[in-house]
Amino acid sequence: MKVIFLFVDGVGMRPPAVDNPVNPEVCPTLCRLIARHSVPIDACLGVDGLPQSATGQSTMFTGVNTPKFMGRHCEGFPGPSLRQLIEKDNLFLQLKQKNLRFRFADAYLVDTADELASRRFKSVTTVMALTAPESISTESDLLDENAVMQDLTRETVQDRRPDIPLVTPEDAAEHLFSIARAYDFTLFEFFQTDVAGHSMDYDRACGVLRSYDLFLATLTRLTEAAGITVMLTADHGNIEAMEERGHTRNPVPFVVFGPKEREIRAPVKSLADVTPAILRLWN
Ligand SMILES: [Zn+2]
């Protein structure tokens, strides 16, 4: 059993609308995966207000309803209480307990995990990856094509790192596929969708979704032939409603494409069910 988990930030499910760029003309592969291989799941978790990244992602990667735990949805990077909760137990620590091989494929432009640990602001996935430092991908992994930049093509780091060669979204998919073949579980996080969602710039959102779709098309062609399961979900909605600057309360898609897809999808109703569903694969 080999699994690629694609965490895509800020992509909710909403009926077609003039300001919804998640449509088959812009991103045909993503739309096909959602239509044929997903269930809508709840990202609001019984707490008022708009769902946010710190609580949504920590719920996704711990199985704990963290908006309930915190009493509210928390934005951006996790604060001390959420960090502590993630550090105590999370998906990576659980995979480790099962003696599985896992990797966080997003490249950090650092030489060592210690360098990353000293950063002041850390995302949920960074806090989780630091609890299992062997999962972390560094700059040398990226240059060896053994990691993928969070934006796929490396464009967003060109201003500070013009020495890092650009790649296409299809190249990024090939790199991720070859990483996934060496591990039981591979995580790849993409957050340009959320950044574009907040911009209220419809054309920018289309550009980001088109690039991600090229990546998805190549990746799913490769994984289907190799019998690797691809899972995809989001922490909250955003990009599907470009006339609103903030997040949405729309459900998010929980896509499972590949072997065992029905049995993985069936019990998942909210973000809190994602980590338990992944872990059940190796029971
Ligand atoms: Zn988010």
Summarize the structure.
The chain contains 13 helices and 6 strands. It is an alpha/beta fold. It has a 6-stranded mixed sheet, with helices on both faces.
Question: Could you walk me through the main structural features you see in this protein, from its secondary elements to its overall organization?
Answer:
- This protein has 283 residues and is an alpha/beta fold.
- It has a single domain (3-280), classed as 3-Layer(aba) Sandwich (Alkaline Phosphatase, subunit A).
- The chain contains 13 helices and six strands.
- The protein has helices at residues 28-37, 53-62, 66-70, 80-88, 91-97, 113-117, 124-130, 139-143, 169-180, 192-199, 202-226, 261-265, 274-280; strands spanning 3-8, 38-41, 102-104, 185-190, 229-233, 252-257.
- It has a six-stranded mixed sheet with strand order 2-6-5-1-4-3, sandwiched between helices.
- The chain is globular, with a radius of gyration of 17 Å.
- The model has no long low-confidence stretch (mean pLDDT 97).
